[in-house]
Design a protein that fits this description.
Elements lengths: L14 H19 L16 H5 L3 H17 L7 H8 L7 E5 L7 H4 L7 E5 L7 H13 L4 E7 L3 H7 L7 H6 L2 H6 L11 H22 L1 H8 L4 E7 L6 E3 L2
Parallel strand pairs: 1-2, 1-3, 3-4
Antiparallel strand pairs: 4-5
Amino acid sequence: MKYSSHPGYRPGTSRRQALKSALTAGIAGMAAGAGLMSFSGVSFAAALSKAQRDAMSPDDVIAMMQKGNERFRSGKMQQHDYLAQKRASGTGQFPAAAILSCIDSRTPAEILLDMGLGESFNTRVAGNICNDDIVGSLEFACAAAGAKVILVMGHSSCGAVKGAIDDVKLGKLTELLDEIKPAVKATKYDGDRTSKNAEFVDLVAANNVRRAMDEIRDDSDVLAKMEKEGKIKIVGAMYHLNGGRLELLT
């Protein structure tokens, strides 16, 4: 191989420098083949391995999701090789997070957080409400499959929250909206308490997230114990449709 033809070659480059450049490129190639991040920050992305996931703390996973959202907002998302991810996860999955979010078509968590196949469990239901089936799914995700974080993600201008505020009646949706009404009642607000008031709607949505988090802890001794032992973290967030920012709730 001629060093002058190598991508790392520059006029006047010594043989030693060229070898070093070739070695660096080779390491990057091996990292890409293993599904790791390249030095340029582009993901060639096979799915997370068990070793990679297990080496992460819950705080690491939260930081990973925040950084993914920053990439989404800036338009600098990773170049996911979904075929490689499909092949890598075909015989096993090792997601780092379990996400409970709304069915809103504008809030697909994997895209908003720039995550690939095999990186997160996802359950979606109008208003990101919690019930026994969802709690059981989250128990599987964390206690059986090893996810480190449960993220409950609400969003601004949520139609389900507006429906609960307006006391909408529509088939089975009526019962679902009843699950959000306690958050409406619990939201302290002296202004216009209608669905036309975006500020009030978003305050209710945030309280609805907090309520779901409390339900997960109250309804699952398994997950509550894991959180107390530091094995997982249960966190809440609001996704802002205008701007695309993920805001962690305190």
